[in-house]
Amino acid sequence: MLPVFLFLLLILLSAADASVQDFCVGDISASDTPAGYPCKDVSHVTTNDFVFKGLGKAGNTSNIIKAAVTPAFVGQFPGVNGLGISAARLDLAPGGVVPLHTHPGGSELLVVTQGMILAGFISSANGVYYTTLHKGDTMVFPQGLLHFQVNAGGVTAVAIVTFSSPNPGLQITAFALFANSLPSALVEKVTFLDDAQVKKLKKVLGGSG
């Protein structure tokens, strides 16, 4: 009876091993989907698919928010496809800010590597959680919640950020409201701002209407 049991066990183990898929490197030449990119043929996968070298270089902060995000999402880093992780580098020049924004597809973990960053988030019950982070400090921002980062010192601040998704998505609240063609009258109704304020913000952020 024992040899039969061992034989069946070997069959089950072999079947289990055969069903394991180590990775699904994204074929970024195809279209992304809610389930991720399709898998690149394993015969075309190389070590480079699992390596990203862009986080060691400072981003360009010469913009309206004096901030730069260098993403290592699936579009830049195909090896994270299907693994539920990704990363980015955040550079904040003095006076820099990442305005209120959300990542609908994943939670965020931020680690400060240089300078000081005032960071926080707002819960769905409108609870406010914020603090000043120093080098080595870490803060988590739950998925989908509005959050922000502000340079809190006189030198450029840098952080490495990781996400619980290969493509966490991004929507910046101010840009969503004022950097598009949503009619000003409608923006005024949904924000309680007056016409002059809305027109000013649309002009600053490049919106119309």
Automatic annotation (TrEMBL):
Keywords: Apoplast, Disulfide bond, Manganese, Metal-binding, Secreted, Signal. It holds the Pfam family Cupin_1. Its main location: secreted. Disulfide bonds join C24-C39. GO terms for cellular component: apoplast; extracellular matrix. CDD domains: cupin_OxOx. GO terms for molecular function: manganese ion binding. Residues 53-199 form the Cupin type-1 domain. InterPro entries: Cupin_1, Germin, Germin_Mn-BS, RmlC-like_jellyroll, RmlC_Cupin_sf. Residues 1-18 form the signal peptide. It comes from the Eukaryota. SUPFAM superfamilies: RmlC-like cupins. Gene3D superfamilies: Jelly Rolls (2.60.120.10). The keyword Lipid metabolism does not apply. It is found in: Secreted, Extracellular space, Apoplast. Oxalate binds at H103, E108. Mn(2+) binds at H101, H103, E108, H147. PANTHER family: GERMIN-LIKE PROTEIN SUBFAMILY 3 MEMBER 3. Belongs to the germin family. This is Germin-like protein. It comes from Musa acuminata subsp. malaccensis.
